[in-house]
Write a structure and sequence with these properties.
7-stranded antiparallel β-sheet
Length: 205
């Protein structure tokens, strides 16, 4: 968890600066406001997990890695809002999966999604192909529906070198916007290349 908090801190520093106030919104609807200098005191373990024994009954991530399929629920999100604006000055939010998945299997995979802050802007978006970012620490955050992915193997973070992102559905479910999509990601570290394909469902907090 400490590594995840450090990565999250790096995102905040890169996007809003050390002195700014940030609103962090969790999946269960609670919010916290804080200055970047207070980051070390934030509890990142809040959320709402009502998925039972079926990880795909709610929000989930499913990946194919080295020929095997892995699925996990994504009950915990955090948000940076606003993370910036797009070219038409529409506010953007970064919703980020803060719990590492599959660590007990020797690797870790996580996703994040940049999207319009206002519900009306987001619901007006078309499904289709959208962008990918290099990773959660290195890219601009000014493109709507940009997906970020992160892969660690044996605690070595691999570099994202390419991929695809297809948004399949954007709809309102139980009063919140739910996004479903699929993706591919290519990673590399010291000559070792890895490929992951997958899908996700994310309910915006």
């Amino acid at each position: 968890m400490k590594r995840v908090i450090l990565l999250f801190a790096a995102v905040l520093l890169a996007t809003v600066g050390w002195s700014q106030t940030v609103t962090l919104k969790f999946k269960n609807g609670t919010t916290q406001q804080f200055n970047m200098s207070d980051l070390v005191s934030i509890d990142f373990t809040q959320g709402d997990n009502n998925n039972g024994n079926d990880p795909m009954s709610g929000d989930y991530i499913q990946i194919v890695f080295k020929g095997k399929t892995y699925t996990d629920a994504t009950p915990y999100y955090a948000q940076i809002l606003p993370v910036g604006v797009d070219s038409q000055n529409r506010k953007l939010t970064f919703t980020y999966d803060i719990i590492p998945h599959f660590e007990e299997l020797g690797f870790c995979f996580m996703i994040g999604l940049v999207h319009f802050t206002h519900e009306s802007d987001l619901l007006a978006c078309s499904t289709g192909t959208y962008g990918c970012a290099r990773d959660v620490m290195a890219d601009d955050f000014y493109r709507n529906l940009t997906l970020t992915t992160l892969l660690d193997i044996d605690y070595d973070e691999y570099n994202w070198v390419g991929g695809t992102h297809e948004v399949k559905s954007i709809q309102k479910v139980n009063g919140k916007i739910q996004i479903e999509g699929s993706f591919t990601s290519n990673f590399e570290l010291k000559g070792d290349s890895q490929f992951i394909s997958g899908s996700y469902r994310m309910t915006i907090p």
